[in-house]
Amino acid sequence: MSISRQFLQFAAVGLCGTAVHYATLWAGVEWFGVSAVIASATGYVLGSIVNYLLNYFFTFDSKKSHVEAASKYYVVIGIGWCINTALMALFVNAMHLNYWLSQIITTGIGLVWNFLGSRFWAFRPMDKT
Fold first, then answer.
1. Residue 119 three-state SS
2. Domain that holds residue 112
3. Rounded CA separation 5/17 (Å)
4. pLDDT per residue over 65-87, tens digit each?
5. Measuring CA to CA, which residue among 124, 123, 94, 88 is closest to residue 108?
6. Number of separate domains in the chain
7. 127 found inside a domain
8. What DSSP assignment string belongs to 19-86?
9. Which residue from 126, 129, 124 is spatially nearest to 3, judged by alpha carbons?
10. pTM, whole model, 2 decimals?
């Protein structure tokens, strides 16, 4: 599969995880009074579970064991979580941007990081030797 087609599939699958992420962000801020940074960080983790399963089976059609694929995926996602949380803190707390605008910008940056890490490392097909 071409990288552009795989990226589009990754982004489409990511909409499911993003929906979970954004719903958690909204509920955390609007219903529970949690800071946008904490709500976003929590939503990122919950969305990553959805995204892992969909990417494993559909986007990358991985043949790796879940132990190998998930451990690598969550290293990538862990770094992405740090990027997400740091950018949200910067945009919301330091720059005083609206939390939705901040999350949309942060999501775009995270999309690129997560795709590259997933494609070239976490779900990279096993070498045929």
1. helix
2. 3-122
3. 19
4. 999 999 999 999 999 999 999 99
5. 88
6. 1
7. no
8. HHHHHHHHIIIIIT---HHHHHHHHHHHHHHHHHHHIIIIIS---S-HHHHHHHHHHHHHHHHHHHHH
9. 124
10. 0.90
